[in-house]
Amino acid sequence: MLSETIAFLVEIDRLKQVDRQTKIVGERRRENAAEHSWHLAMFALVLGTRFARVDPSRVIAMLLIHDIVEIDAGDLPLHSRNVNLAAKQEREAAASQRIFGLLPPAEAGQLLCLWNEFEAGETENARFARALDRLQPLILNLQNGGGTWLENDVTEDQVVERYGSEIEPSSRELWQEVRGLVSRHFQQNSPNHRAQLKEA
Questions:
Q1: CB 131, CB 166: distance < 8 Å
Q2: How many CA atoms lie within 13 Å of 151's alpha carbon, on the beta-carbon side?
Q3: Backbone angles phi and psi of 12, in degrees to 5
Q4: Concatenated DSSP letters for 116-162?
Q5: How many CB atoms lie under 10 A from the CB of residue 141?
Q6: How far is CA 75 from CA 15, 71, 142, in A?
Q7: CA 187, CA 66: separation in Å to the nearest integer?
Q8: Can you tell me the distance from the alpha carbon of 108 to that of 120, in angstroms, rounded to the nearest whole number?
Q9: Counting Cβ atoms within 10 Å, is residue 123 exposed (0-12), middle (13-18) or buried (19+)?
Q10: φ, ψ at 91 (rounded to 5°)
């Protein structure tokens, strides 16, 4: 029924109220989860056929819905400490049932299937979607001079571990390019490099 679909579409407007840790370029404010999802969809549209053999439309669909559960479960920043992953997964699974369950059964099933595929990360499409989900905040942090990495005292090794672990398995070529940007950032922002600039 149309009323069920409208109820779902109204409910997901609440994703605009879920703030993420990453700031938009220019550091004026933190992005919200709806902006993040849109930006990821654009990443998939322009990078999908260049760096992976995927179905861009399926990847885009996954990226548009993967964070909807944060309406109920909230956003858990990548650099959070002492995270209870089991509890997080439980909250998100319950949220997926409630929110997608607002739709008629056939449509709810389709979106749940996409959400579960993204979470499992076992298909090539899901692996690429998850890679982009790491790539986007990495790019924003680079554009913001370190952004949340500075706020959370994140080291280069931690960036490589936390971001590379999702990006490299999907596209080694993409990770190699991004890895160079990360190295350059940390080299240019090291205390030794800043001291050399002052002396020059």
A1: yes
A2: 13
A3: -75, -10
A4: HHHHHT-SHHHHHHHHHHHHHHHHHHHHTTTHHHHHTT--HHHHHHH
A5: 23
A6: 10, 8, 21
A7: 34
A8: 18
A9: middle
A10: -65, -45
- Report yes or no: 11 and 99 within 8 Å, Cβ to Cβ: yes
Residue 183, C-beta contacts closer than 8 angstroms, at least 6 positions apart: 156
CB neighbour list of residue 98: distance below 8 Å, 6 or more residues apart: 72
pLDDT value of residue 196: 44
- CA–CA gap between residue 168 and residue 198 (Å, rounded): 36
Amino acid present at 149: W
pLDDT computed for residue 181 by the predictor = 96
Secondary element (H or E) of residue 49: helix 33-51
Identity of the amino acid at 52: A
Question: What's the burial of 131, exposed, middle or buried (CB within 10 Å: 0-12/13-18/19+)?
Answer: buried
Report the distance separating Cα 149 and Cα 141, nearest Å: 7
Strand partners, 30: 23
Per residue in 40-67, pLDDT (tens digit) is 999 999 998 888 889 999 999 999 999 9
User: What pTM was computed for the model?
Assistant: 0.91
Tokens 């890895």 found at: 179
Read off the tokens for 122: 């076992």
Q: Let me know: does 137 contact 148? Beta carbons within 8 Å.
A: yes
Amino acid at 47: L
What is residue 198's predicted lDDT score, i.e. its pLDDT? Answer: 45
